[in-house]
Amino acid sequence: MSEQTKTSCGFVALVGAPNAGKSTLLNRMAGAKLSIVSPKAQTTRFRTLGIVMRGQSQIIFVDLPGIFKPRRRLDRAMVNAAWNGAQDADLTLFLVDARKGLKDDVREIAGKLKKSERPVWLVLNKTDLVPPETLLPLARDLSELLSVQQVFMVSAQTGAGVEDLLDRLSVSLPSGPYLYPEDDLTDLPDRLLAAEIVREQIFFQTQEEVPYQTTVETESYKDRPDGSVRIDVTVYVSRPGHKAILIGEKGRRIREIGMRARQQLESLLGHPCHLFLNVKERAGWDEETARLKALGLSDFA
Ligand SMILES: Nc1nc2c(ncn2[C@@H]2O[C@H](COP(=O)(O)OP(=O)(O)OP(=O)(O)O)[C@@H](O)[C@H]2O)c(=O)[nH]1
Ligand SMILES: [Mg+2]
Fold first, then answer.
1. Which atom of ligand 1 lies nearest, measured to the CA of 39?
2. Measured in angstroms, how far is the CA atom of residue 217 from the centroid of ligand 1?
3. Strand stretches in the chain, DSSP E
4. Which residue, 97, 146, 184, 265, shows the most beta carbons closer than 10 Å to its own?
5. CA–CA dist 34, 24 (Å, integer)
6. What is the C-alpha to C-alpha distance for residues 87 and 207, in angstroms, rounded to an integer?
7. First-to-last CA distance in the chain?
8. One digit per residue, pLDDT tens: the chain, 301 residues?
9. Is the CB–ligand 1 distance for residue 21 below 6 Å?
10. Distance from C-alpha of 198 to C-alpha of 77, rounded to nearest angstrom
11. Is the CB of 157 under 6 A from ligand 1?
């Protein structure tokens, strides 16, 4: 038997309600920050891959937007992208926030996963936040809604249970050659990463509607001869009031967003960054094909 035929490789989709901890788990399993995380729901807007090598196995995780009731064109595209990602995967990890438990949104997702008839593993996350005796009843209630092949209890935050999950995944994927080079970590281009890191700061530093009414695009990304990089980013907002909030008194808010994002980017990219943010008002950006296209979502709208 050749080396090639001993390897296994597959796509593992992370599916769940917004805020269940999918991106945190992706980053934990990949051992790198690939997908942005925030305490607010609906942080992730598009599919991001995290590629993990384990033994003779290449596990390609697919971080996806959370599933919720869409209102805008952007929301619809996010939710469609999530279901599409699940449909294309070899296996779905159904992530449930153990502290929130079995809410209506989780019930609905379980129903749809059941209909899709794809293999599902249940992952109860945030086990660090609940008494251990609540976990088995929750797993049992969920297993009554859909058939799951395996159940895991993890904390994406502390890492508890995550190694076990990776071990089990690595022996459960179909045999076949690796689909990505062994040292690839993700398919996320640096210019998209830059926009995401700025958006993450906006999720942290603004409240209510503002982060949801904002999108971020990298206009230009240029390596400079001194080894640094110059990144020009446009932040689109839908209302004048939101522009004022983002900029803040005497420009303090936008400076703080830029500074934190730059620090993050420098540590992720490993070289100095010059980051320039430009806030533009653009009513209805969340219905605009060009804006969705920049997020890789235009096929799903
Ligand atoms: N205590 C605790 N917090 C967690 C855990 N996993 C994630 N979180 C927190 O939960 C919040 C949401 O995490 P995300 O990873 O952004 O959740 P998500 O499922 O990707 O959310 P969307 O992208 O909105 O669908 C963040 O504040 C995380 O720090 C965990 O195991 N324990
Ligand atoms: Mg996410």
1. 27
2. 24
3. 8-16, 48-54, 57-63, 91-97, 120-125, 150-153, 214-223, 229-237, 273-281
4. 265
5. 9
6. 33
7. 46
8. 454 569 999 999 999 999 999 999 999 999 999 999 999 999 999 999 999 999 999 999 999 999 999 999 999 999 999 999 999 999 999 999 999 999 999 999 999 999 999 999 999 999 999 999 999 999 999 999 999 999 999 999 999 999 999 999 999 999 999 999 999 999 999 999 999 999 999 999 999 999 999 999 999 999 999 999 999 999 999 999 999 999 999 999 999 999 999 999 999 999 999 999 999 999 999 999 999 999 999 999 8
9. yes
10. 21
11. yes
Ligand 1 pocket residue status of 238, Cβ below 6 Å: no
Q: Is the CB of 27 under 6 A from ligand 1?
A: no
Residue pair 168/185 in contact by the 8 Å Cβ criterion: no
Cα 152 to the center of its chain, rounded Å: 20
| Torsion angle, alpha carbons of 97, 100, 103, 105, to 10 | -50
Phi, psi of 62 (to 5 degrees): -120, 100
Q: Which amino acid is at 194?
A: A
Closest CA to 178 of 30, 51, 12, 26: 51
Taking the centre of ligand 2 as the mean of its atom positions, its distance from the CA of residue 230, in whole angstroms, is 27
Pocket test for ligand 1, best of 33, 35, 37, 126 (most atoms within 8 A of CB): 37
Gap between the Cα atoms of 96 and 105, Å rounded:
10
Tokens linked to 255? 């400076």
Ligand 2 center from residue 67 Cα (angstroms):
11
Token readout for 174 is: 């179909």
Identity at 220, one-letter amino acid code: S
CB 105 within 8 A of CB 111: no
Q: Indicate if ligand 1 lies below 6 Å from the C-beta of 38.
A: yes
- Which residues have C-beta under 5 Å from ligand 2, the single-atom ion? 22-23, 43-44
Token digits of residue 297: 């979502």
